[in-house]
Amino acid sequence: MSYFEEYKAGHVVLPHELLSNFHILFTSELDFVVWLFFYENSDVAPSTIASALNRDLVEINTAIKNLQSSGSLKVTILEVAGSVDTIFDANYAFSKLDEIQKAKEKNIPLVLDEKTVSEDQFRDLMQSFEQEMGTITPFQAEEIRNWVEEDDFEIPLIKLALREAVLNRKVSLNYIRAILRNWRGEGIKSESDINRKREERNLADTRNSNLSGPSFHIPTGQWKKN
Fold first, then answer.
1. What is the value of pTM for the model shown?
2. 184 touches 190 (CB < 8 A)
3. Which end of the chain has fewer beta carbons closer than 10 Å to its terminal beta carbon, N or C?
4. What is the DSSP string of 23-91?
5. All domains in the chain, ordered by first residue
6. What is the C-alpha separation between 197 and 193, in angstroms, rounded?
7. Where do the record's region annotations for Disordered lie (predicted)?
8. Distance (Å, rounded) from C-alpha 176 to C-alpha 161?
């Protein structure tokens, strides 16, 4: 039985391999402790963890984002009868541990470079949002992650949408989401596409301006003879 199956059965004692692969599953000791809270109770609130550890809520939210980035925690947002519930699923750490063990048994090198690069990009994206919006909650972080993983928006394009929102002084996730969907409808996928669209609009505006330029009145009456 795999670690993941043992976890689902409800009788898992934390395996030694969890600590042996600590550097892969967790980025810091605080991340691990926060993960333990969710392992024990998937409904525990981040504020409760912050109080129990005598830590600032910002630190706990950062740890949650790190766990999401490393693949050791899944955050699910549920909307039931108008209320929003957040579920923190810690079993992904065991699923990831199974992958590590299978790779070792088959003498297959564990390739993390591609994953690491993408997660580094996501962390950088989150930092960009925090610079403009302040502390990002787990709920907001999950929505931004969904733009990347489910809606397939490229991270550089999301940054451009954030910049557009800042320029328009409407920095909110709803507004940024609207920008992204509008761009997708126009076939915009990169900064070069945005520049191309702007050039097309400027050219169209110039043509319209020329067509509606000053008109000249040509008299149609009889010319006077000298």
1. 0.53
2. no
3. C
4. HHH-SSHHHHHHHHHHHH-TT--HHHHHHHHT--HHHHHHHHHHHHHHTS-EEEEEEETTEEEEEEETT
5. 1-110 (1.10.10.10), 111-206 (1.10.10.630)
6. 6
7. 199-226
8. 6
